[in-house]
User: What shape does this take?
Amino acid sequence: MAVQSLSEGRLTAVSRLLRSSALHSVVAAVLVGALFLVGAGADPVAAYGSVLSGALGPDGIGSTLTTGTSILGLAVALALPMRAGLLNLGGDGQLVLGGIAAAATGLYVPLPAPLAVAAALLAGMVAGGAYAALAAVCQNRFGVPLLVSSLLLGYPAMSFASYLARFPLKEDGSSLPQTRPLPDGVALPAFGASTVTAGLVLVALAAAVFAFADARTATGYEIRMTGLNPRFAAYAGVDRPRLTLRLMGLSGAVAGLVGAIGVLSFPYRFIDGSLTAAGHTWTGLTAALLASAAPLGTAVAALFFAALDVGGLAMERATEVPRELTQVLQAVVIVFLAARLRLTWRRAAKTARSKGGL
Assistant: This one.
């Protein structure tokens, strides 16, 4: 019990440090962005105001929630293994496999529309989860680092999905690399006339389950302890290979779910490259890194980056400042976070050594 209390105290201290560092990093990035805006001859207050109004105003909130659906889902997918110190870089591959599996299921499974939608979502999750688990097998059985195996397995997955969209599933008479449209009714219900669909509810539910499991279950504690100190977790009896397999399977399943949601939303088909063109996988990874994979922090960071993405367009229209500035802000956030954490850890290590010498 004493060991567990000590470990939980260390986890709390680390989480407080990370939250403080993330907040400071965001503030520093905003100040650096303001300097860029001044250098470009723009008014920082007007530019940031246009970002907020463009992302959260009546004309932009729908786009923010639609973009946030993908970013939040992928952030949760990548935060799951990251919580245990594992890095899944194959999100794009798992995303497109989920999308193409959902498209094929929706086109060929003879079920009523509501059941076809459920089957397509399930197929996307199974495809993404199974493929992500393959990367874990490569590490557990063959010693290939997960970071390498997950990244490299993403490329054949995207090539395979591209082949299916361009040949067996291609729409007849179309010059675009896209599948045939899904049958009538095989689509996620939308909220009113907006582009926001029930997919937002699904990824929010995934984030809520992640948060509950992380805070309230023994498995969540094992995951946190493995991320904090793998050797201690192994000494306490955590089966790391099995945990890696489970987490990668769950991670890929959520990424595949996001891909299926993308296909079951407008334009209701799989278009080669459309799921990965926006770079939402890497934005989700950035959000998970910023929050150190904490469930609530990951969700907040994902929505923050979604608002930046959508608001950047409004800023470009209002101030003629390129929307790429928002991508610069994302990069600066991570740079400041990494630098601050590095300095903090070095200071802590130096203090520990000085106390040990005494």
About this structure: The two ends are 29 Å apart (CA to CA). The chain has a mean pLDDT of 88.
